[in-house]
Amino acid sequence: MSSIHCHFSSSRWQECELSGGRGFVCGTAWLSGHRLSASGALKQMDLAEGVDAWRKRMGELNGFHALVRRTGNEMVAAVDRIRSIPLFYGVQAGDVYLSDDADWVRQQLDEAHIHDEARADFELAGYVTGQDTLFRRVKQLRAGEALIVSDSDLGLTLSLERYFLFQYYGMSDRDDSRRLIRLEEIVEEACEQLVKTANGRQIVVPLSGGYDSRLIATLLARCEYPRVLTYAYGHRDNQEAKVSREVAHALGLPWTFVEYSQEAWNQVADSDEYWRYQQWASGWNGIANMQDWLAVKLLTEQGKVEPGSLFVPGHCCVTGFLLPSVFEAKRAGRLMEAGELTEALRQRHFTLNASEEGEALFRERVQPRLALDYPLDEALDPDEFIRQFVLFGWQERQAKFIVNSVRCFEFFGHDWWMPLYDRDFMAFWQSVPRHWLEHRSGYVTFVENMFTEVSGLKAPLGNASQKSRQSLRARLSRLAAFRRGPGARVKRLAKRLMPGLARGNTLASTGRFPPETLERLRSQGYSHNGVAAQLFLERFC
To answer: Are 158 and 147 in contact (CB under 8 A)?
Structure first.
């Protein structure tokens, strides 16, 4: 007889009794501004009134959670709208296995070999697209998706239901004054929910030089939350940290700096802890985002971050990566040509190997998979182009790489919250006019105005990452011509003649990699994250 097997490795899961079954909740679900109990959250999962009613109820939930409801030999398992707490599943001999631990599922299925298409995704993007993981029979729930397992005459049957898609609808209304008022209401409500979630705990903000974390710090300063710590990291005197310090000082918030160096990374790069984290956080789906890992480790060990603190990163649904040509096409009243979406996705998401071999791998292995879900071979209206591009970014890069970085906080025993993925904040950005998406102009204006109001600092600080990307070192590093062959030799000579170029990236994280391996893979066209992906595959697969 077929059966369902559930395994939850995290201590964050709660189990509760339900009428006719049991339920499991990880994280927190909110509804209409109120925090739901575990049983209250699981009531939203009831399919008794049909899938349409279920989909509506699930779409109304806010917060960050994974929910599993079991009644008899049936099950509904769902992740939230950004897959903040991943769930994995697989089928073996008619039995269904579900877990928050992808490796547990892999072991139950006795799956030992990765498949080529998934490996190509991983090598070029750093994550596996769609429902797949590196192992063919180990699947994952996508953002805003649920797995429904039901008992029938044929045994257990599986179906997937999507209750949320982050799709851009757009509006032509240019009344920005009303829109700005509504946006302020939304971020204030998101901040109130954050404060209720923190419940007096220390709130820790990774404060970069960009606008997203600046907005969070500004909101906390405005509401005068009493226990806030902001921090920045990287090599000494990096541009991000300079702006971060200025922001914290202007807002009157405590600030600390964690210096990164190649030596500091060298000290941890061979440790069991370092690799154990990467394997666990990957979910056999993507490379672990290591950006905050060293800082959180050191701040925790030094006692600057209290046990169980609430980390609040500036992860945000507002994309800044749309091509200028799409806005030009809309103004000119022309379509985006067939193939332009393919190239836009490739250049934004699949360039961890920027060599000719990497592009050929994309064309051969990745593009056919993408064509199953995206209109790659069609001429598209610019609004539809934006919709498809934003959809891919949300359900792939944001959910599987950016948002998944919260595993770092969990690993060191802390909690987390992401107010810029609030339900109403996301809904707001699905319907903003097109001109707000061009360089995120409406959003940038909003953040700068609020920061000026709270801090009293009238001169805009700008975006540090944009300034950093204009540096000679950054421009050289981004050029494929300088990653291999004669170009790589020219870059090495330039570093010897101009020592400032040799410092490495802002995170100094070239120290994570053995020098000879780094040199070999960079010469083959791999970027920094491309090297990380290759080392992960070599070690674990």
So the answer is: yes
